[in-house]
Amino acid sequence: MNGYITLQNDLFKSDMNVHEIVTYAVLKAFSNCENNCFPSRKTIAEKCGLSLTTIKITLKSLYEKGFIEKCGQFRKNGSQTSNLYTIKSISENNKYFRVDRDIFEMGLTEKAVAVYLFLSCSADNEGIAFPSKSVIANNCDISVSSVNIAVKELKAVNLIDITAQIRQNGGCTSNVYTLIKQELQPDESNIKIPKNDPSVLYDPHPLFYTPTPYVFNALLELNPMLNITHKQVFNKLIQDKKIELKNSS
Questions:
Q1: How far apart are CA 72 and CA 80, in angstroms?
Q2: pTM of the full structure
Q3: 103: DSSP letter
Q4: For the chain, what is the domain count?
Q5: Which residue segment(s) compose the domain that 89 sits in?
Q6: Residue 156: inside a domain, yes or no?
Q7: Are 31 and 51 found together in one domain?
Q8: Taking a C-beta distance cutoff of 8 angstroms, is the pair 120, 98 a contact?
């Protein structure tokens, strides 16, 4: 996968617990430009590293707290399929941070994801943050011991670097956490949606469009996170002549 998701800084000032923080972020990763998505609860559970039972409880809680809206969807035969979720703003604060979508594809524990999100929220323009472990724990709704485990997990997969800070009297203070920039994926901005193709509703922006059910099935099959810039998805759509590449010359 490639691309980023954008989250409000107030994510950690809400009354969400750690399950809700990570689930909200995963739903955001699935969402389109209108903040709508419809992943199955099983898929959400897999991306969050949580049980299906916990996800059911968490989605209910997010809905009751007003952080998401949900609407049941039904097939032609009357059977129910995945709910349609609309992600709501956490607050009127317009300060945001962004996170690489790959964070949900790395098999990280829920607590490691939450800590990474908080470090991303706290980091400066150079990707450096130095909150204390107690501050991380309070904002992520986990214990300090869980923070210790989470930062080791993040360092092990090369997502962060950790530098210890020592006071002049020899005592320790907060670590410095540096977010390690991940390798950028190939630029796929040269994608053009043909205006005369009835299978796609044209949008002037080359990376945002509303596909017909045929194309959506391809997206769901190849990329459950619905990240339409994924190379596999583009290859499939190009192969099926649903999109075409512009001549770069």
A1: 7
A2: 0.70
A3: G
A4: 2
A5: 4-179
A6: yes
A7: yes
A8: yes
